[in-house]
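Lest this sound abstract, we think one record worth quoting, the chain in one-letter code, the fold tokenised, each line plainly labelled:

>
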Amino acid sequence: MYLPNIESFLDEGQITIGTLQPVGCVAIANDDHNTLAMLKRRRGESLQDLLLRLDQAIAKAHDDEEFIDEVNS
């Protein structure tokens, strides 16, 4: 699986995957200035699918300046 946006983003930021109570499993991409994406793992979603969505969310943040927050919405 190739995740080009995550790969390039790691030069400037970080991703975190883990459990956040009471939300459950999340994937977060942030740098020193912004949180680009906070995704909540969907029921039945594989880790691979979550990472693919995170890769797409990073692209959307860079291309369209649209940040996704599924945790605090």
Notes: DSSP finds two helices and four strands in the chain. The mean pLDDT is 96.
